[in-house]
Amino acid sequence: MSVMTPQVIKLTDEEYKLFRDMVYEYSGIFFQEHKKYIIENRLSRRLKQLNFTAFKDYYYYLKYDRKKDEELVELMNLLTINETYFFREPGQLKHMINTAIPQLLKTKTDRVLRIWSAACSTGEEPYSISILIKESGVLPAGYRVEIFGTDLSMDAVNKGKSARYRKISFRSTDPRYMKYFKGDGTDFTVNADVRMPVKLDRGNLLLSSDTGRYRNMDIIFCRNVLIYFDKESKKRVIGNLSRSLQPQGFLYIGHSETLFGISDEFRMNNFGEGIVYTKK
Ligand SMILES: C[S@@+](CC[C@H](N)C(=O)[O-])C[C@H]1O[C@@H](n2cnc3c(N)ncnc32)[C@H](O)[C@@H]1O
């Protein structure tokens, strides 16, 4: 009788706590008690690739091996949830074009608009921003836009850099915007003129050494990521974003997220189709 290798390597409660704390300290992502199966399922295959038979061995590898920094990047590729799509939460995007940008242009002292899509996952958000700025003609002649996209997952960032997307990414896209893509019915590539102002890079929102690379931003999008953090991580991340944003700059967070009890550095404005924060 052949002995089958089990698909999933067992994660003990003690090991789960070690991984949960490690992930939390590194990324701010907080796995609750009932999420043990996620770590068990997603990391088992990685353990096998590295020839580990127990989670504890993998934990020590992540902590002490000379390749630990590269492996932490891999760990985050496996544990982050990268769900996103083009033109997500369109009310906020409309507000950016119709209200935020015109308002910013009134007081701008230089001719560069800087927008940061923080936690941009595979890039649909920064490319949507680029398309809308182009389509609307909101920027007067002589002005240009720089759109930065960052994410903790290197795999997601690399996918964004490839700028190739499947149909599922367009589930909320008005057909009139498809002219900004070249497609064969299955794969769609973002046109070069939309890609040009977009710069994608890996970055951890919890680390001021990473977020400090983005200064004097006029607008920041940080949507659908605060939900993965506890209150302490939210405070750290929002503090970091606040330092990157110009006074009177705009911050958009996800519709199920709030800065209530997190920061008093922002004014909240409910504009009907959504919420926007401005830096005081
Ligand atoms: C659900 S996606 C949201 C994507 C996009 N903002 C949107 O609203 O469609 C959440 C992203 O947050 C990223 N993330 C999680 N923790 C992070 C951190 N500490 N720093 C940067 N990105 C992080 C994940 O890798 C993931 O791609």
UniProtKB/TrEMBL annotation:
<dbReference type="InterPro" id="IPR000780">
    <property type="entry name" value="CheR_MeTrfase"/>
</dbReference>
<dbReference type="InterPro" id="IPR036804">
    <property type="entry name" value="CheR_N_sf"/>
</dbReference>
<dbReference type="InterPro" id="IPR022641">
    <property type="entry name" value="CheR_N"/>
</dbReference>
<dbReference type="Pfam" id="PF03705">
    <property type="entry name" value="CheR_N"/>
</dbReference>
<keyword id="KW-0949">S-adenosyl-L-methionine</keyword>
<dbReference type="InterPro" id="IPR029063">
    <property type="entry name" value="SAM-dependent_MTases_sf"/>
</dbReference>
<dbReference type="InterPro" id="IPR050903">
    <property type="entry name" value="Bact_Chemotaxis_MeTrfase"/>
</dbReference>
<feature type="domain" description="CheR-type methyltransferase">
    <location>
        <begin position="4"/>
        <end position="280"/>
    </location>
</feature>
<keyword id="KW-0808">Transferase</keyword>
<dbReference type="GO" id="GO:0032259">
    <property type="term" value="P:methylation"/>
</dbReference>
<keyword id="KW-0489">Methyltransferase</keyword>
<protein>
    <recommendedName>
        <fullName>protein-glutamate O-methyltransferase</fullName>
        <ecNumber>2.1.1.80</ecNumber>
    </recommendedName>
</protein>
<dbReference type="InterPro" id="IPR022642">
    <property type="entry name" value="CheR_C"/>
</dbReference>
<dbReference type="GO" id="GO:0008983">
    <property type="term" value="F:protein-glutamate O-methyltransferase activity"/>
</dbReference>
<dbReference type="Pfam" id="PF01739">
    <property type="entry name" value="CheR"/>
</dbReference>
<dbReference type="InterPro" id="IPR026024">
    <property type="entry name" value="Chemotaxis_MeTrfase_CheR"/>
</dbReference>
